[in-house]
C-alpha cells in the first residue's frame, strides 16, 4: 500500500541487512515514524508494546525476531529462548505461535552454522506469503461486496462497518478485512466505511481511518456504540472484520466489542463477514468462548487517552477518577452462529468445521 503516495510495507529488511524496519504504530495517526529493530529484545518489545500489532504482522515480526536472536547465538538453547521470549509477548493471536513453530521446524534440523541465514530467508518468505494470502483474500471478499452492491440496486453508497484495524497496518501488506474494501474502491464501487473508534486503544479512529485516508477511501469515524443504531436505520449493508484466532468450528476472537456488533447485525439482518488468513485458524480448538485465551492489558490504556492538542503537541491525559479500577480485556469471542461467512485466501465458506474443512482438507483435525 502507499503512505503519502510512496509504496511500502509495515515491516522490511533494512538496507544494510543487519536489522528490521517497522512503522511505529503507537505514533500514528499524529506522526509517521519508523523504527529499527536489531535484537531479539527489541523485536519482543515492539510486539508487546504494540509498536507492531495485528495477528499477521505479529507473526512476521516474531519470525524476524528469531533471526535477530540467532545472529548472536544459533545454538539449540538460544533458539528455544527466542521462541520462549517471543511467545510470551501476546497470548491471543495464534499467528505468533504459528510463525514460531514454522521457524522451529525449519531450524532445529539444520547445523548451527546454517541457522542464521536460513532464519532470515524464511522470515522474508513468511512476509511475502502473507502479502499473497491477503491479496487473494481481498479478491474473494470483493465478490461479496459486488454482490451486496447489486442487491442494493447499485444505488447510493455501499455502506460497510468495520471494527478495530484489520487493514495493511495489521499485516505485512493489503490487510485482511480491508483488502476487499481497497479492491472495491479501486474497481470503482462507491464504498463508504463506518469506522468504529475501537476503544480503548482507538485502533479504528487512529489506524483504520488513517490508512483509509491514505488510500482515498471515503470513511466516517463513529463511537463504538453507534453501530447498532446505524443498522436499525438501514445504514449498514454489511459488517466486515478481522480475527486474531479462529477455532476449527468457526468461532472468532477479535478486538473487544466485535461480539456486540455481531449481535446487532444478527438482530437487524445485516451480513457479518470475517476475513481470516489460514494461519489464524487454530485447528486444536473447538469452543472459542471457553478455550481462546483473552489478553488483559494494562488498565492505563482505558483510563488514559492520548491525542493531539490544538497547539500540535501530543499529550496523554487521564479520563477516569483517581482510585477507580480499570479492567482492560483486549478481545472477545464471536460464536460461529453469528458469523454469516468466513473469507479466506482459498475462498468463502460457512463458519463451520465442515466449511473450513472444505477449503483446508489437509489441515483439518490437526493441531496448528
UniProtKB/TrEMBL annotation:
Catalytic activity as recorded in UniProt: 5-(methylsulfanyl)-alpha-D-ribose 1-phosphate = 5-(methylsulfanyl)-D-ribulose 1-phosphate
GO molecular function terms here? S-methyl-5-thioribose-1-phosphate isomerase activity
EC number(s) for this protein? Answer: 5.3.1.23
Q: Which Pfam family, just one, is annotated for this protein?
A: IF-2B
Q: In which pathway does it act?
A: Amino-acid biosynthesis; L-methionine biosynthesis via salvage pathway; L-methionine from S-methyl-5-thio-alpha-D-ribose 1-phosphate: step 1/6
Q: What does it do?
A: Catalyzes the interconversion of methylthioribose-1-phosphate (MTR-1-P) into methylthioribulose-1-phosphate (MTRu-1-P).
The family assignment reads:
Belongs to the EIF-2B alpha/beta/delta subunits family. MtnA subfamily.
Name it: Methylthioribose-1-phosphate isomerase
Q: What is the lineage of its organism?
A: Bacteria, Pseudomonadati, Myxococcota, Myxococcia, Myxococcales
